[in-house]
Amino acid sequence: MKDRYVVIGNPIEHSKSPQIHAAFARQTGQEMEYGRILGEADGFERQVREFLAAGGKGLNVTVPFKEAAWHLAGERSGRAEVAGAVNTLIVLADGRLRGDNTDGVGLVRDLTVNQGLDLKGCRVLLLGAGGASRGVVRPLLEAGPNQLLIANRTAEKALALAAALSGFGAVFGCGLDRLAGRQFDLIINGTAAGLRGEVPGIPEHLLAPGGWSYDMMYGSEPTAFVRWGEAHGAARALDGLGMLVEQAAEAFYLWRGIRPETRGVIEALRGV
Ligand code: ATR
Hints:
By secondary structure, the protein is of the alpha/beta class. 36% of the residues lie in helices and 23% in strands. Helix 1 packs across helix 10 and helix 5 crosses helix 10. The strands form 2 sheets. Strands 2-1-3-5-6-4 form a 6-stranded mixed sheet, with helices on both faces. It contains 11 helices and 12 strands. It is globular, with a radius of gyration of 18 Å. The protein has 2 domains: 126 residues, Leucine Dehydrogenase, chain A, domain 1 (Rossmann fold, 3-Layer(aba) Sandwich); 136 residues, Rossmann fold. It binds 2'-monophosphoadenosine-5'-diphosphate. The site of 2'-monophosphoadenosine-5'-diphosphate (ATR) has 15 residues, from helix 6.
């Protein structure tokens, strides 16, 4: 029987993860299957345990179960520990379940390797202080930006997140209402505003000349925040498709010990 993996989340039908992992498996000659499970609000832990009892080797976990997966993992990587969220579950040889978080490294790899941005010395603004943002702060800081400011509608959450990660670099928190007059080389959107086609309430001139915008979300059409970047002079206005593929590649590596090539997979998904 082939090794079995799944992504679990809710909603799940539009997830591109099965397509991405199937491409990785073909490319690397790995004998594996990758499916999807619609997670139930009160059934997540049971569903994971059933999958493992049936011989499942690993899971990706997506919204809204990343925190539940963190609690479920018997051991966690350092980056998952700090993120407070787990997007990859790995069955260890002794049967224990290890939780990791590959979102942050996926974002940083997309920015630096795929897009060629040198984060060193950059002034970076991260919008939002929920689960999506929490997952990426430590890897972002480890890439050596000049400073990372986390701005959130509810200021206290940004301040608390910055305080929790202060051991990893120059990170500060504030409310969205404190951004007037400031400028950044890179603005990353980690808020959920885009789910309703909205952008967070931010000033007009936040991007420094030559600055980039990055939306952690993606869609078949340009997202609201990609359109914001384009309308506000971003030298590059990127969506999160590259991050999605890179976080998947890192999960694949954790499971299979082989790092797949991502560029062709990103281009295929993008339809180029
Ligand atoms: P996720 O796990 O997807 O990040 P979350 O934990 O609910 O979801 O966090 C959502 C984030 O998007 C929060 O930072 C939220 O701001 P608040 O903490 O003030 O709620 C932010 N957010 C959601 N809708 C927003 C909007 N319309 N404008 C600005 N920020 C928004």
